[in-house]
Amino acid sequence: xxxxxxxxxxxxxxxxxxxxxxxxxxxxxxxxxxxxxxxxxxxxxxxxxxxxxxxxxxxxxxxxxxxxxxxxxxxxxxxxxxxxxxxxxxxxxxxxxxxxxxxxxxxxxxxxxxxxxxxxxxxxxxxxxxxxxxxxxxxxxxxxxxxxxxxxxxxxxxxxxxxxxxxxxxxxxxxxxxxxxxxxxxxxxxxxxxxxxxxxxxxxxxxxxxxxxxxxxxxxxxxxxxxxxxxxxxxxxxxxxxxxxxxxxxxxxxxxxxxxxxxxxxxxxxxxxxxxxxxxxxxxxxxxxxxxxxxxxxxx
Amino acid sequence: xxxxxxxxxxxxxxxxxxxxxxxxxxxxxxxxxxxxxxxxxxxxxxxxxxxxxxxxxxxxxxxxxxxxxxxxxxxxxxxxxxxxxxxxxxxxxxxxxxxxxxxxxxxxxxxxxxxxxxxxxxxxxxxxxxxxxxxxxxxxxxxxxxxxxxxxxxxxxxxxxxxxxxxxxxxxxxxxxxxxxxxxxxxxxxxxxxxxxxxxxxxxxxxxxxxxxxxxxxxxxxxxxxxxxxxxxxxxxxxxxxxxxxxxxxxxxxxxxxxxxxxxxxxxxxxxxxxxxxxxxxxxxxxxxx
Lengths: 300, 290
Prior knowledge:
A: globular; B: mainly alpha; MetI-like fold; 14 helices; MetI-like_sf (chain A); transport (chain A)
């Protein structure tokens, strides 16, 4: 095919593709170009290109900050505890849903269980405040009317941690069942029938057929979740957190926001962001590698 | 114990647990709805659980007569709609060419896009970019940065790839251009996945908060989430100061806040059941490839 015919045949496709590619170059690669300010004494008036190079000075400063280590620790801590609490929930829920024979009950349950996934953290924050607020929260109202002492769910470290983890389960457990249920629909029905003939109880069938058949999914998701240990969303810790519990709720993403956009220390904040991106990359590729070794299945 | 009774016990326990979990997901909403419909007296005395007490619509009347709130709602609806349309246009424009194996540079473009799933400049360089483009306090700062989600793009590409090639070939033999094939053959066959992705984009925009916090200081352009955040946050602050002994009444009545929470949730709940049957398959495609 000559160049001219090739172009005549494909120009429409290139025209279509050009718009998204321009988008990626400007809005995704543009910020990557901006990462260089981590190595510069960034000054708004001189801009990215005009600011002076300072090498790794800003890195040294960040690594000398006590707050940096607190936020790093919190990021790991919140992610790890979240994994501990939020990871098993959808597995259990999926197995229970799978065992339900009533089609309408199963459908309605699933519809409701998925909903919290579509609710923003701002709204969840509003709901959490209504439920767990010290003064006006419902839970403390109930506790008080029962003659119990109210619990400072939002303003003391350990109760706050439980509130934080609880909201995670609430938001994600139902949605997380989708993958497991899909894995379960692929299981050969004859296995269950054969087990029944052999006189296996429901619990035995769960233990010897259901669980082993979703084990690959569980292992893959677990490993991939471990790969996300340093990446933490901004909305949840920022909204559920507050100044009273900052010692626990301040994580890398909120730290970047505070240092960068609230105090205007762009260079320092970019260093923290870059640190998070690079370590995150290492974790993701590492967990993907392990996932492939262990299960023969990864994301990449 | 016979097999049938043990089966029945299992079913009862199982259904009870699932029902409790469903209730656990639902109860917070019920409480907020109850608060939004209760009298201030009942709320402050802590009587409200999941049923409204001293039923009244004052909070909603208040919200609906608040001009700033209505403006924010209308703005957010328009913003969400416009964002979703633009995102879908750009995602389709990227996905369709990338399914053509003979397209030169296809692999390169794929890499260019996939890399951005794993590495990004971070929020500070993003903020500076938006600033340099003079988009601070502009609606575009809420639309442009998220035009194409690589994750959604991959879902769409794998869906397009599953459409039998013979359909396209026969259209091409009939002299159809690529654009026409896309419009009259590929897209009509892709409505389920298109609906799913539109839902994901729309929910993402509707729920989006961090970008408006960073880029918008003009109250006229506050999306609903930012407005709601400030209402909740104000109260958090007053509650924290109360903890420290200062005796102030909360700035906003609880019922008003509850009504706003419901107000910001209803639109999602309204579209979601219609799309539910589609998004499960969308998630599956995404999980395999994404």
